[in-house]
């Protein structure tokens, strides 16, 4: 997992400098334009920003989405065409920005993080949104097109989106991006459930511990990217912007609630992952104690046997000495010693059993 994924200019670069990032592996740029009202909807894939001109200054809502790699020339052309601030355009190019909202003249600029859990890896895609009266520009430089379901709702006229202004479309975009956290968190929950089952089955190999730490890192990354969404929605709700209607605030509050729910789930998963580490350590400790207990009992059993074997291994059998071992010349001496050893072993095992040590 990458710990630092923000792109940036060399220190000392003037603010607002637009430089394409050659390290970003993005698909070819696609520009989709959707223009709609309560009665009509038009969708086009355009090749140039200039193709947007007929849709400006109309009573319809115009949504332009740029998907894929955006070079500095394209972003400059876009900024000149829509009169966008260079600092905001710089943030669009430099992915990995912290989610935030900036207010410019008759314009709001929003950056969101979209969580994706793909092929066992958690990653966050930056989605940048410019919102003005009647028009929305959105950018996603990497990954797949994230608004398929919203596009279907527009075409099928599902819900109230076609009867509302552009601020409601902004809410729909934010809601779609935030709700992407639920399937990603669901997969992390499945990981934790699998790890818990493995621990309960006494599987304490090092792979399990590595999986726990990987999941904890994902949760920390998840929280770092989701937490600022609360600030974005709070600012949208608190600021009395002329671009946001009062009716839309109700839906933005619902978005805020979803963010809080995601953070609550994240906190629960973090506590669960911490407890899984404790369970892992306890399981390893208990297993070690069990091994030491068995080894201690085996050693305890063999102590008297070793004493007897060592005692009669000295072979002091001089018949003229009064201190010689008479047992060395007994006819049944060897079977008697073996029987004594067996009696000692059985007696100790019965004693351990009675004390519940076995």
How would you characterize the overall build of this protein?
With 358 residues, the chain is of the alpha+beta class. It folds into two domains: 30-283, CorA soluble domain-like (Beta Polymerase, domain 2, 2-Layer Sandwich); 284-354, Magnesium transport protein CorA, transmembrane region (Methane Monooxygenase Hydroxylase, Chain G, domain 1), CATH 1.20.58.340. 51% of the residues lie in helices and 15% in strands. It contains eight helices and seven strands, in the order E-E-E-H-H-E-E-E-E-H-H-H-H-H-H. The protein has helices at 72-82, 86-93, 148-156, 166-179, 181-200, 206-238, 246-311, 333-354; strands at residues 30-36, 41-46, 61-67, 100-104, 107-118, 121-132, 135-140. The chain has a seven-stranded mixed beta sheet, sandwiched between helices. Helix 4 (166-179) runs parallel beside helix 7 (246-311), helix 5 (181-200) packs parallel to helix 7 (246-311) and helix 6 (206-238) runs antiparallel to helix 7. The longest helix is centred in the C-terminal third of the chain and has 66 residues, at 246-311. The model has no long low-confidence stretch (mean pLDDT 84).
